[in-house]
Amino acid sequence: MYISVLASMQRHLLLLLFIAFLAACKPTKIDTPIGGTDPQKPATATIVIIGSSTAAGWGASDYKYSWAGRLTQQLANSRVVNLAKGGYTSYQLLPTNATHPANRPEPDTLRNLNAALKEKPTTLILSISSNDLIIGCSVEEIIANFNTIRSKALAAGVAHVIITTPLPRNYSAEVTANLLLQRDQVMKTYGSSAVNIFDPLANTQHLTKPELLSEDGIHPNDTGHEVIFKIISGFLL
Q1: The whole model's pTM is what?
Q2: Which CATH number characterizes residue 180's domain?
Q3: Is residue 126 a contact partner of residue 146, using CB atoms and an 8 Å limit?
Q4: Of 6, 66, 71, 107, whose CB count within 10 A is highest?
């Protein structure tokens, strides 16, 4: 029993260290722009993305092949602003003055809801996957943070707030179980404003399909990003 508990603690420590490494590093081929498309091009809508690594383009061979990069290229009459960053949790995306537990990350004023609202979005896309769970947050915490972000965005005049499910992750059975719970809660809570990007990428074991997985073993590859792009763009077109 003691050995089992110790092994579990060691696995969680390794995951925490890996997330910290992701947050501190920048992928060599991905350069997520803070800003939108050609400023000379007239835009009928502004789409702002806040979230974590996959939304920032991780796993794709180049940013233009990520789902957000494809969105930027394909939505010719829209300005797409991507504020997502690898390693981020829902706490970093909360409004600047939001209350949060002392042992949780602080809102990042350069990439949180306040930063998003400065871009005057017509649509806000919130896409967070497993980082909250890795640092020990409950699904209830995650949904509460999503509710805060969504309600503040709508109150500020954002017409559409789209919230994605998490993605499958090849971590542990415990993480997978919580990702499934998070998926179900997002779909139940946000209904027609929720986008299920979990199931199309998952196999029967609820892990990422090998053919959609990048070399890092965590994030979707170009093909996986294309699958996500088609799902999300379907909500916008």
Answers
A1: 0.85
A2: 3.40.50.1110
A3: yes
A4: 66
